[in-house]
């Protein structure tokens, strides 16, 4: 059995629910200790000015080995 890290980050996939990600963490032996949400931006040109417009978010769970 390979050595596992004490902490690991789990990214919620595009076609994955939060519950599915948490279940994946549990099956690998980790419990969630932190949730991080990072905004995703895209560039749009409006009136010859480049603006950064939010278009989604990335959710990452930090897990601690049980």
UniProtKB/TrEMBL annotation:
Listed InterPro entries: NETI
Superkingdom, taxonomy of origin: Bacteria
Pfam families with a match to the protein in the record: NETI (PF14044)
The name this protein goes by in its record: NETI motif-containing protein
Organism: Metabacillus malikii
């Amino acid at each position: 059995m390979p050595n596992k890290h004490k902490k690991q980050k789990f990214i919620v996939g595009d076609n994955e629910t939060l519950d599915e990600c948490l279940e994946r963490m549990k099956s690998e032996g980790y419990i969630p200790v932190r949730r991080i949400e990072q905004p995703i931006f895209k560039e749009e040109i409006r009136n010859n000015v480049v603006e950064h417009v939010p278009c989604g978010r990335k959710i990452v769970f930090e897990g601690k080995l049980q």
